[in-house]
Amino acid sequence: MTGMAHEAHGARDEQSRDELDGEPDDMRIRLAQSKQDKENDQTQTGSFPVVKRKSKKPRIESGVRARLATSFLIALLCALLGFGYAIQLNNPASSYETMSEEELTRLITETSTQVQNLEQRKGELTSQLNSLKAAANKQQEAERIAKENEQTSGILSGRLPAEGEGVIISISEDPKSRIDASTMFQLVEELRNAGVEVMALNSVRVVTSTYISDTKNGLQCDGQELSTPYTLKAIGDPQNLQNAVNIAGGVGSRLKVKFGANVRVTSSDQVRITEIHESRQYKYAKTVE
């Protein structure tokens, strides 16, 4: 029995070899090609070198560096700004070095006018004090001085009309660009710096408490609506007032360039300001007796 089994196994092995020997040639070719492909996959050629990937650095580290750099730049700018500000404080004359010749001339003229006005007022008060001391009837002299001062204070406070030489400023507004209140008020301030004594904007008497505000329809002065064209009458030195408006880079240039307005300044030997300002009723302030 055992011999017969060995003979059967040998017969099957011989049959398997015969079947393999009888396989088609294309099967052998495919097997050989598959073996060659596996060998090629394990071979590193020199034509395409292996490139190693760079390890990515943590994003947190780059973010910290960016914040540190930004903080350093901000600190440096603050230090430079503080240094420049300190130099400016220690050298106040440097602001005048950047001004043009016309601006310096206007500044000197305005300062001289203010000094002259103060000196004139000082002389008037000194003369009144001396006359009061020398008067036999001090009560009568005091009444005369009070009456004299009442006329001056009435003009300054706007209670009395006034006339004298000065300028008349006409401002025609461009419909596409409305003039704002700050620019108009700057014009009033420039005239004050130039030594103006009495002013009236349209039909409003300009006094120390005068304000100008913006409205949906234009400008308002002391609660009254202003219509265009604007007319500003000013009594004072005509040349100084005219220079204050027409100087290069001044408020007149701003009105023309920024708002497209037409500004015309006319000198006159007789400027009449009949507009008056009603006296304000003070609730808390009282005169000292």
Describe it for me?
This protein has 289 residues and is an alpha+beta fold. It has a domain at 99-279: Protein of unknown function DUF881 (Alpha-Beta Plaits), CATH 3.30.70. The chain contains nine helices and eight strands. The protein has helices spanning 2-21, 25-41, 59-90, 94-97, 101-134, 138-157, 181-193, 238-246, 251-259; strands at residues 162-172, 198-201, 204-206, 212-215, 218-221, 224-226, 230-235, 262-273. The strands form two sheets. The chain has a five-stranded antiparallel beta sheet with strand order 3-2-7-1-8. The protein has a three-stranded antiparallel beta sheet with strand order 4-5-6, covered by helices on one side. A hairpin with a 2-residue loop joins strand 2 and strand 3 (204-206). The longest helix has 34 residues, at 101-134. It is elongated, with a radius of gyration of 49 Å. The model has no long low-confidence stretch (mean pLDDT 77). It comes from Bifidobacterium subtile. Residues 1-41 have a biased composition (Basic and acidic residues).
Short description:
The protein is an alpha+beta fold. Helices cover 55% and strands 16% of the residues.
Structural class: alpha+beta
> What is the top-level CATH class of the domain at 99-279?
Alpha Beta
Query: What is the number of beta strands?
Result: 8
Helical amount among residues, as a percent range? 40-55%
Uncertain parts: none
Helix and strand arrangement:
Blueprint: H1 2-21, H2 25-41, H3 59-90, H4 94-97, H5 101-134, H6 138-157, E1 162-172, H7 181-193, E2 198-201, E3 204-206, E4 212-215, E5 218-221, E6 224-226, E7 230-235, H8 238-246, H9 251-259, E8 262-273
Antiparallel strand pairs: 1-7, 1-8, 2-3, 2-7, 4-5, 5-6
Helix pairs in contact: 5-6, 7-9
